[in-house]
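Re: the request from the purification team.
They wanted to know what the chain is likely to look like in 3D before they choose a buffer screen. I agreed to run a prediction and write the result into the notebook, where they can find it.
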Amino acid sequence: MKIKLLFLLFSLLIFIIGCAQELNFSGRWQGKMIQQNGPRGEDGYTMYFNLRQKDSIVIGTSRIKIPDSPFFADMKVKGTIKNDTLFFKELDIISQNARPGYFWCIKKGSLEINSATKILEGKWSSSDCMPGIIYMVKID
């Protein structure tokens, strides 16, 4: 009987620790945004998220950048988390240096986290741009 009780308590402790280690989306993320049929094709753009999470709500900023160039845009971001998915929407551009003749897309999408690799990956779309994919890793 004591062994069963100890096993039950140990199992409960492992379950509580597992729940407490649920991934927090707060922090800095870095990765790539790709538009397969867009101006940069598979080369894509460098993308960053700087997020703060409270419960299931996420707020912060995103940055999209053409690698090895001075062209970027910083955007305000808001999102929600449901299960292992971040549903995000860029609200507006905070600052930018756009490439002449081009503009930055205001994106929305859903990024699912792979719990084993801690990689965010998913699709994004925009009302005035071709859709694509994003993948990111947490850098802090």
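For the purification team: The two ends are 45 Å apart (CA to CA).
Please add any questions underneath this entry.
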